[in-house]
Amino acid sequence: MKRMLLALGLLVLAAVARADPAPTPQNPIIIKFSHVVAIDTPKGRGAERFKQLVEERTAGRVRVEVYPNSTLYKDKEELEALQLGAVQMLAPSVSKFGPLGVKEYEVFDLPYIFPNKDVLHRVTEGPIGAQLFAKLESKGIHGLAYWDNGFKVMTANRPLRVPADFKGLKMRIQASKVLDAQFRALGANPQVMAFSDVYQALQTGVVDGTENTPSNVYTQKMNEVQKYLTLSDHGYIGYAVITNRAFWDKLPPDIRTILEQAMRDATRYANAISQQDNDDALAAMKATQKIEFIELTPTEKAAWRRALLPVQSEMESRVGKDLIDAIHKEAQTIGAE
Ligand code: LMR
Q1: What's the rounded Cα separation, in Å, for the pair 115 and 95?
Q2: Strands 236-244 and 141-151
Q3: CA 214, CA 222: separation in Å to the nearest integer?
Q4: Distance in Å, CA 223 to ligand 1 centroid
Q5: Which residues of the chain register pLDDT less than 50?
Q6: At 175, which CATH number?
């Protein structure tokens, strides 16, 4: 019995000796947080707020290094880097999980699936959001929060008023089969491209147009190489803030608790500023008088809906009919549909 206890004691001692030393300001835990957008966007600001809160609340025992604007990795590479542990945190748009094998996230790309942000929040903050996060665990990814960006506009060098205006246009999309179907339904040719390449592709005519949120269009200067912007609100872009699961699981529990609270606070902040950021971007683009804004008439809006709503049933087999129905149910619950 004594010998057993001694052996056990030695095992414990060996485990303690092997464990990472407790983090200190001189020897902090480093979190590399990579993303693809500008700092002055909802996601960019959210990441900066998270960094500030974490560094304050851990008194420097954790350092968050934010790498914006694809300075470290582009869209596809950043997900691979997270899985390999080369970075610890990302906030990809929810449209970018399909290539990882988690097709359900593309439900967020369905045209007109969210009548407003209240419905969206019921989805992201309720059981659907949690179920979607659970699907990432087997990929070595742990979901931390959903951050808003906003509803999308369309841009091109030709006015886009009715679906027929899209005919033959090469439109840049994120890597999502739902977005591919959306543009095919409009008669356009969708082309998957990393976010960091879009400005140049628009400038050189590799693509004719694109869709994005106003804050992304403005901060990437896409408005300088596009003549028309249609206020279509046909779909949504938002983010899943994610971390490398092994990294997260290995954190000292007290540190993890601080990070979780900081993420809750940064999420509240990012979601509170997102609408204003997009409104400001629209106002700033309008003020340049270099891009013409197109507001759709009720008849034109109806024509867009007629062309795009069938994408919801067309994509049932990809993203899951139950999931689509569950989102419609959330909308009905609050009388938004
Ligand atoms: C895009 O790739 O168009 C955007 O979703 C990028 C982003 O992260 O907002």
Answers
A1: 18
A2: antiparallel
A3: 10
A4: 15
A5: 1, 5-6, 8-10, 12-13, 15-17
A6: 3.40.190.170
Each residue of 112-168: pLDDT tens digit? 999 999 999 999 999 999 999 999 999 999 999 999 999 999 999 999 999 999 999
Q: Is residue 12 part of a domain?
A: no
Does any domain span residue 10? Answer: no
The H or E element containing residue 172 is: strand 170-173
Q: Is 8 exposed, middle or buried (0-12, 13-18, 19+ CB in 10 A)?
A: exposed
* pTM for this prediction: 0.93
pLDDT of residue 4: 52
| Amino acid letter, residue 101 | G
> Cα of 132 to ligand 1 centre, how many Å?
19
Q: How far is the CA of 195 from the centre of ligand 1 (A)?
A: 6
Q: Kindly state whether residue 189 falls inside one of the protein's structural domains.
A: yes
What is the β-pairing status of strands 29-34 and 62-67? parallel
Q: Is 37 in the pocket of ligand 1 (CB under 6 A)?
A: yes
pLDDT of residue 18: 52
- How many angstroms separate the CA atoms of 71 and 115, rounded? 35
Let me know how long the chain is. Answer: 337
When divided into structural domains, the chain yields a total of 1
pLDDT at 138: 97
For residue 191, the enclosing domain spans: 22-336
Protein residue closest via CA to atom 2 of ligand 1:
195
- With the CA atoms of 54, 60, 62 and 67 taken in that order, what torsion angle do they form, in degrees rounded to the nearest 10? 70
Pick from 87, 98, 82: which is nearest to 135 by CA?
98
Full DSSP string of 60-109:
TSEEEEEE-TTSS--HHHHHHHHHHTS-SEE--BGGG-GGGT-GGGGGGG
Q: What percent of the chain has pLDDT above 70?
A: 94
Please give the Cα distance from 70 to 180 (Å, whole number).
Answer: 23
Residue 50 belongs to some domain of the structure: yes
For position 19, what pLDDT does the model report? 58
